[in-house]
Amino acid sequence: MVVLAAEGFSDSSDSEVDSDDSYVLDEEMNALQGLLVLCCIFKSSRESVNSLFSTGITGRPIFRCILSEKRCHILLRAMRLDDHSTHLVRVEIDPTAPISDIYNSIMKNLMSN
């Protein structure tokens, strides 16, 4: 379960966030997931987003073709792997709560194939 946290958009310190930035399309989430897969393929897990989208030598043109750097920052900042309202209760029961649902879903899909 991927949840876009509404509080991620309400931070007044980020002057670049527009009022229409809280609307997310499924295509944008798919594009973001694709970018994360490309980060794994290019072995750039420790590289900054600015560097990935750079027009210089460190940047990769495919990242700029898929999603804008600003939108990528906004989506990454707002994305959560668990539900904020049940997080505290779930962490008391299971310390790996934020990722366990996703891991269990992946394992279930792998076992069924």
From TrEMBL:
<dbReference type="InterPro" id="IPR029526">
    <property type="entry name" value="PGBD"/>
</dbReference>
<dbReference type="Pfam" id="PF13843">
    <property type="entry name" value="DDE_Tnp_1_7"/>
</dbReference>
<feature type="domain" description="PiggyBac transposable element-derived protein">
    <location>
        <begin position="26"/>
        <end position="110"/>
    </location>
</feature>
<protein>
    <recommendedName>
        <fullName>PiggyBac transposable element-derived protein domain-containing protein</fullName>
    </recommendedName>
</protein>
